[in-house]
TrEMBL record:
Coiled coil: none annotated. GO terms for cellular component: tRNA-splicing ligase complex. This is Family with sequence similarity 98 member B. Belongs to the FAM98 family. It holds the Pfam family DUF2465. InterPro entries: FAM98.
């Protein structure tokens, strides 16, 4: 997916383990079951929430329950008017199961 790179994460002052392009791709392949990818989602969500004054958030509390975590992310994306219907509609268990959808999440 165009627009997702470790250079962009570094520009956002991300200091986590996914600054290497291949690590980012591997984490996206693991999706929300990847602790590194989940932490990146939580970190990005906190950055966006503070900049955009959003009500919804993505918290680490939901990570242990994948479905709850997916619901948090979907609510957050809906508030942001996410254009990717695969990320915000349909069966919650089917969301963020593909690498491309995980990369789209990072693009949004």
């Amino acid at each position: 997916v165009e627009g997702v790179s470790s250079d962009e994460l570094e520009a956002l002052r991300y200091k986590g383990p996914l600054l290497e392009e291949q690590a980012l791709i591997r984490a996206a392949e693991g999706g929300l079951s990847s602790p590194e990818f989940s932490e990146l989602c939580i970190w990005l969500g906190s950055q966006i929430k503070s900049l955009c004054n959003l009500e919804e958030s993505i918290t680490s509390a939901g990570r242990d329950d994948l479905e709850s975590f997916q619901l948090e992310i979907s609510g957050f994306l809906k508030e942001m008017a996410c254009p990717y219907s695969a990320l915000v509609s349909g069966d919650i268990k089917d969301r963020l199961q593909k690498k491309d959808d995980c990369l789209k999440l990072l693009c949004k």
